[in-house]
Design a protein that fits this description.
11 strands, Jelly Rolls, PEP-CTERM protein-sorting domain-containing protein, 2 domains, 216 residues, 6-stranded antiparallel beta sheet, membrane, binds calcium ion, 17% helix, 5-stranded antiparallel beta sheet, globular, alpha+beta
């Protein structure tokens, strides 16, 4: 009986050590925690902030137009060099990033006025901001239905890097033209490999059963 319990605890430990597949790694994914107003040029991990503070008026958290909760991001594209970003540098190990299939999603809204556009980038990176692949695209006023929230989504495989990549940066950048966009509910999560966890569990239970059978 003791052996069986020990096997069970061992299996629990292994499963607990496995990456939490499917969890959204973006902190404050709905812009509910970030203080309303123009985003600070604070940098750092796991925060929404603006790079190059001189252009920070392009990026604000506001309470008027939102998909969920009380707040959403407002992007004004007139200042071309603004970049907003968050990343998961403090939360992930390289083994939880590299080679994994990642799924991303965010929702965007515009009133359709102007000719503005911006880019989104999901970058596989590290503490030195050495980026290696990911996903990117361009959002244009003409590509959206005005006054309607539209979901942008896709997936990609995170590149293996040397040195290891343990960050997933989510950027909004490449502003041009003059329009206002709103962004809410940003998601970035790993896509579980079909049956991988189940196969591992079955293999371990099978091994435990094999041990029990051979002790009789
Ligand atoms: Ca929100």
């Amino acid at each position: 009986m003791k052996k069986t319990i020990r096997c069970f605890l061992g299996l629990s430990g292994v499963l607990a050590m496995m990456p939490a597949m499917g969890a959204n790694v973006i902190v404050d994914s709905g812009f509910e925690v970030t203080t309303a107003g123009i985003l600070p040029d604070s940098g750092g991990s796991n925060v929404w902030s603006a790079f190059q503070g001189g252009f920070s008026g392009s990026l604000a958290v506001q309470e008027t137009i939102k998909l969920s909760g009380a707040q959403a991001l407002e992007i004004t594209t007139a200042n071309e060099f603004a970049i907003i970003y968050t990343n998961t540098g403090l939360n992930l190990a390289a083994s939880e990033v590299e080679g994994m299939t990642w799924s991303y999603s965010f929702w965007v809204y515009t009133d359709g006025v102007g000719d503005g556009q911006f880019d989104y980038q999901i970058l596989v990176s590290n503490e030195l901001n050495q980026d290696a692949g990911g996903a990117s695209g361009t959002i244009t006023v003409g590509g959206l239905t005005p006054n309607t929230w539209t979901e942008i989504s896709g997936d990609f495989v995170a590149a293996d890097g040397d040195p290891d990549k343990n960050r997933m940066k989510f950027n909004f950048t490449g502003f041009s033209g003059s329009s206002t966009f709103y962004v809410d509910d940003v998601s970035l999560s790993t896509v579980p490999e079909p049956g991988a966890a189940g196969m591992l569990a079955a293999a371990l239970f099978g091994w435990a059963g094999f041990r029990r059978r051979h002790r009789r």
